Amino acid sequence: MMRDGYVARWRGREYEASPDGDNMRLYQPGPGDDFEQVRPGRFVRVLPVAELEDVAYVRTTCTWKGEPFIVLAEHDTWLRVEYTGGRWPVAQSLGLEEFDFGVYQGWAPANEVTDLREHRV
């Protein structure tokens, strides 16, 4: 599983999370512990940040064709990657799309990606 986003630890368990002012929204795929369903397979509970054991931002990085990337998503045998090398000619030579000014993304075959690592910030 490739992760790119907030996680929070509460009662010894780690949850996908998102900040909400002084609170944090915790998500899980099923009901329990006063989580409310927001859509099928998605339940949320809002807690004050002070009640959490830990909050971090998790990002998955990799190397593709010798260049550094962040992994944004995965679909079947492909990874959605964002180039972090900062060199336009390289991004262009890799056939990446300019997602925003200076931000280049594309789909990479998962079997061509190396050095997959998860970083906690």
Account of the 3D structure:
There is one protein chain. By secondary structure, the chain is mostly beta strands. The chain is built from 1 helix and 11 strands; from the N terminus they run ββββββββαβββ. Strands 1, 2, 3, 4, 5, 6, 7, 8, 9, 10 and 11 form an 11-stranded antiparallel beta sheet that branches. The longest helix is centred in the last third of the chain and has 6 residues, at 88-93. The model has no long low-confidence stretch (mean pLDDT 95). This is DUF427 domain-containing protein.
Strand content: over 45%
Q: What helical percentage do the residues reach?
A: under 10%
Going by helix content, strand content and strand pairing, the class is mainly beta
- Distance between the terminal alpha carbons, to the nearest Å? 18 Å
Low-confidence stretches are none
Largest sheet: 11 strands, antiparallel
Protein name: DUF427 domain-containing protein
Organism: Phytohabitans kaempferiae
